[in-house]
Amino acid sequence: MPETADRKDDHVRIIEEEDVETSGTGFADIDLVHEALPEIHRDEIDTTTTLFGHELAAPIVIESMTGGHPSTTKLNRALAEAAQRTGIAMGVGSQRAGLELDDEDLVESYTIVRDVAPDAFLYGNVGAAQLVEYDVADVEEAVEMIEADAMAIHLNFLQEAVQPEGDVDARGCLDAIERVADALSVPVIVKETGNGISRSTATRLADAGVDAIDVAGKGGTTWSGIESYRAAAVGADRQEQVGKRFRAWGIPTAVSTVEAAAVHNCVVASGGVRSGLDVAKAIALGARAGGLAKPFLGPAGQGTDAVVDLIETLALELRTAMFVTGAASIAELRETEYVVLGRTKEYLAERR
């Protein structure tokens, strides 16, 4: 099996077996203000929202995780079937393996998502580091592979810096992103992979014409930590230590959400989002939706029903948060009152 595909399999295994969680999203410092007299019926609350004109039943995204190894086909099938049944959005993992390797089994790990989710909002995924080598036609191939409704370009330079085989040339990526955003047939999302996006970076991306920003801040799965485990397995001691040192590096998700939403009108909050209440807080901070990755991985291994069960739990938590803040719609939730406490308050004060 080629190196790129083996790496994808390694990632899933490490996430399932090792401690790769960090804390510090900032959501614990966000209190939504309770409304004792909401004057609405909980079951009539409207959780629908739109993303690039596509209606979602709830502002919940199954974040990019898997694809690129035959073992991930089952996982992507369950995730996509659940997205289809519940009306939420889903992204696939990096499509690099599918684009660069001539292997039908690898490609199927991606194409399966549209096969089983003909109506779901699905987005593809390529790395910013690869855009310098790809032209727009290559990215269009990734779009066509899953009949994507949008394309994510991921920023993972800390992860690349820890990988023994990582791509650490970040030159020219913003120009490449602007080129793709201008010419691609579908909207472009730029997403981090666990270290957050600052206001200044979000401004540069907005100026480059990207259609959405997924902040993927600090506080969830640490890709630096994952690559530290991989480095240890191949005896790359120095890279292992670097991965450990930067395990908790980044901008907290709550902070990154506030900063990105100040300069772009379509922000997805991910990075340590672990509940429907976290999704509600993210939307109150300015996000359009909240995304989760690792929490879906275990259920995906169990099958579609387990993934649907988790989505329904998240949706009920979100609906409950809306009920007790008096928000009858997602638009009203975006205007709900909140209080910022603790380290997040200090962080935002310093940044401002």
UniProtKB/TrEMBL annotation:
Q: Where does Mg(2+) bind?
A: E160
Q: Where in the cell is it found?
A: Cytoplasm
Which GO terms of the cellular component aspect does the record hold? cytoplasm
The enzyme's E.C. designation: 5.3.3.2
Give the highest taxon in the source lineage: Archaea
Keywords in alphabetical order, please.
Cytoplasm, Flavoprotein, FMN, Isomerase, Isoprene biosynthesis, Magnesium, Metal-binding, NADP
Q: Which SUPFAM superfamilies match?
A: FMN-linked oxidoreductases (SSF51395)
| SMART domains (alphabetical) | IMPDH
Q: Where does FMN bind?
A: S64, M65, T66, S94, N125, K191, T221, G272, V273, R274, A293, K294
Q: Which reaction equation describes what this protein catalyses?
A: isopentenyl diphosphate = dimethylallyl diphosphate
Q: Which residues bind substrate?
A: R7, K8, S94, Q95, R96, Q159
All copies of the FMN-dependent dehydrogenase domain together span 23-95, 168-336
Q: Does the keyword Mitochondrion apply?
A: no
Which GO terms fall under biological process for this protein?
isoprenoid biosynthetic process
Question: Record's Pfam families?
Answer: FMN_dh
Question: Which cofactors are named for this entry?
Answer: FMN; Mg(2+); NADPH
Any one GO MF term held by the record is:
FMN binding
Q: Which PANTHER family match?
A: ISOPENTENYL-DIPHOSPHATE DELTA-ISOMERASE
Q: How does it assemble?
A: Homooctamer. Dimer of tetramers.
What does the similarity note say?
Belongs to the IPP isomerase type 2 family.
Record's function text: Involved in the biosynthesis of isoprenoids. Catalyzes the 1,3-allylic rearrangement of the homoallylic substrate isopentenyl (IPP) to its allylic isomer, dimethylallyl diphosphate (DMAPP).
Query: What name appears for this protein in its UniProt entry?
Result: Isopentenyl-diphosphate delta-isomerase
Q: Which gene encodes it?
A: fni
